Amino acid sequence: MSVIYFLISISVVVAGIFLYLFIKSVKSGQFDDAYTPSVRMLFDDEIKSDVKKSSSKNKTNHLVNENQRENQI
Amino acid sequence: MEKKGCYHCGNEITTFNRIVFDEKEFCCNGCKTVYEIFSENDLSCYYDMQQAPGATPEEANGKYDFLDKSEIINKLLEFDEGPTSIVSLYIPHIHCSSCIWILENLNRLNQGVYRVLVNFPEKKATITFNKEKTSLKEIVLLLNKIGYEPYISLKNYDDKPQQVDRSLIYKIGIAFFAFGNVMMLSFPEYFNIDDIWMRQYKDFFRWLILIISLPVFFYSASPYYIAAWKGIRSKNYTIDIPMALGIIVMFIRSAVDIIFDLGPGFFDSMTMLVFFMLLGKLFQQRTYNFLSFERDYKSYFPIAITKLVEGNKEEPIQIYDVVKGDRLLIRNQELLPVDSILISESTFIDYSFVTGEAVPVEKKSGDKLFAGGKQVGDIIEVEVINSVSQSYLTQLWSNDVFQKRVDMKYKTITDTISHFFTPVLLTISILGFIGWSFVSINAAFNVFTAILIVACPCALALTAPFTLGNAIRILGRSSFYLKNVTVVEQMAKVDTIVFDKTGTITTNAKSIIQYEGEELTSEEQSDIRNIIRGSNHPLSRKLYGFLQARIVAKPNTFEEIPGQGLVGTMNNRSYFIGSQELVGIPHDKIINETAVHIKIDGEYKGKFVFANHYRLGVKELFEQLDKKHYKFAILSGDNDGELEALKALLPPSTALVFNQKPEQKLEYVKELQETGANVMMVGDGLNDAGALAQSNVGVSISENVNVFTPASDAILDARKFAYLEKFMDYSKKSVKIIKLSYILALTYNVIGISVCLLNKMSPLVAAIIMPVSTISIISFVTILTNYFAKRILK
């Protein structure tokens, strides 16, 4: 049963590593702006799709608009 | 007629401003130009993500010339090495995902830009660019051209980038780590009271718990010791005292228990308690990154101004370098940063922000101009008579009365409770100690420490942060931004509300003008514009700015009839422009509508209606507040020209005081307070700054919350002005919620203390009673605050 010393030590060390990573990432300012990255990841290839812009595309975009507005609220 | 907004900025399109381009309608040339720029560079996706996301670009003409000066650039840049520079610009217009997208694709419009990173909550764009390929000025001009004008003020020049304090997050992280692990390691202790397995391992578990708890006790909980020490020194029985006491006693008793092998200790409860308390702290620490409640004149002043050097050469100069005798050039809409004397022939200065006068004042050559006024008109030349630090506005600001508030401390509702709670708690624990000492001294110590541990007013202390923290979050969603949680409590106590007039119950924004009647041809529009050109009446000037005809010509005849309007002839047609009497139509009483009527060649054409001068819903707001028995006063820096209109608009009990200087406003508020009133001051400008600071709750109202408001406790978006009564109501309800949950929290305490007095407290009971009380209180207040928000605010 003395393996329990070993196991518990490992679990505490692992938790400690996570704590260290958390503090490190807070320090680097990662959590200062929690909103912009969530929007940023949604646009990527918009510029290319621009060339073949058609009216049907506009309609789907309107739907996207609605969704995004809801997200902002 | 279907109304459609401008494709770029969403402003209303009328017959006077319609520009059709690429099958889309625009309200002005500026918007059209931005659209052109975007579509030429394949960036028209901008319009797909959000409808009409843009802003009308302002003319820059020379406004950013100061960005040529390297000393100013160096102050603005965050990083500058080799060809790479980084600058952070505050752009108030950032408001939607389109804004993020277009700004982060700025490198398509300017090859010198490497990368733009937008911080949406702070409305900041961090731009990395190549100094050799482009310049800061070019970037700023580009931003200006596409409607994202950065706001650069004197504050940018002085401010060092401040260090963000993240220590609270570290403390929470550590407390959470310890709480989780200690809980896990305590489980065997909870279930195996005494068996062989437990006997073998309990030392290992206990010592590990002790070690893990050390950083929580010494680091995470440190704010409470400091606060408690401050409370003791100032003889203020704050809630921090029993809390710090509870934590310390818990630690010492648990450490003693473990070291002398007496029991498992209360480390699980301690770490959890500290974690929840810190969480409450974080929760009430709601900051609005894009707002500042402590703005001073620096964020109102420009960073540089145009100076005339020998040979009438224009040169940008940093504001602090302006000295007496300098000649400055002030453009339209620019701010006068220093006291000076007008050299040009005449001009209009808008002092509404500084003094509260609604109408721009005409100044003639040789007149003294005070700092803080906005120039309205053509470019003027002035001679400086005082440097910035000695000018009227700066002096006004550094006036002692305006700063007084700093050490004024309000007693919060939690403090009031703890004022009774702390002595009662200490008495009970000492009585318990004495009582049990007749039985056994060991039991007496157990009872004494257990009471302090369990009574540690965790639930009590969490109630207010969670209720008020949630309240300011909810109010913030309705565009009413509070500085901190105590403002909610203060608001609930308010019984007298003092309003400023200019800019507070009237609007500052450019009036929206609508035309009703038969359509005017463009020749007629141009004629009207030329006739009113010579008039200095405020309405004429507004109308002149509204009409967009280009040709400037002199009317054949032109006469101004005071109080009535203008009569003129042009291109052989006669024009009557003015009041209903002048054009000879029956006088129908529409309260609070300002209109200019047009009659051409004896035929009535229609009228230009100027949007309501008073804010929407003022009358209703006052009626509602009157029903709730608030007292009001209107303090105005303006003359009493609107006395009658205000009397008709407001409840009869309202006190109306005119011609008030900033100091007098402050005195007025102070006098009210001396009669025992809790005063809320609602103002907008520098002239209210003193009164805002003196009042119990200073609310500054702003059309554009991002740009400038005087120092205050709360910032209210002007569009939500009519909601003020609801906000007051909500704050009252919040305080009621706190009182209700105090009853709940005290019930838990009574139960806990009773158990302790019977010497039945075990770590397991403590580990159950503490989270149950905490979590039930938090859910109770969260549910109630949201419930009332739904009922009142919508």
UniProtKB/TrEMBL annotation, chain A:
Keywords: Membrane, Transmembrane, Transmembrane helix. Pfam families: FixS (PF03597). The chain crosses the membrane at residues 6-23. The keyword DNA-binding does not apply. Coiled coil: none annotated. It comes from the Bacteria. InterPro entries: Cyt_oxidase_maturation_cbb3 (IPR004714). This is Cbb3-type cytochrome oxidase assembly protein CcoS.
From TrEMBL, chain B:
GO terms for cellular component: plasma membrane. It comes from the Bacteria. GO terms for molecular function: ATP binding; ATP hydrolysis activity; copper ion binding; P-type divalent copper transporter activity. Keywords: Cell membrane, Ion transport, Magnesium, Membrane, Metal-binding, Phosphoprotein, Translocase, Transmembrane, Transmembrane helix, Transport. It is found in: Cell membrane. The keyword rRNA-binding does not apply. Residues 85-151 form the HMA domain. It is a multi-pass membrane protein. Belongs to the cation transport ATPase (P-type) (TC 3.A.3) family. Type IB subfamily. This is HAD-IC family P-type ATPase.
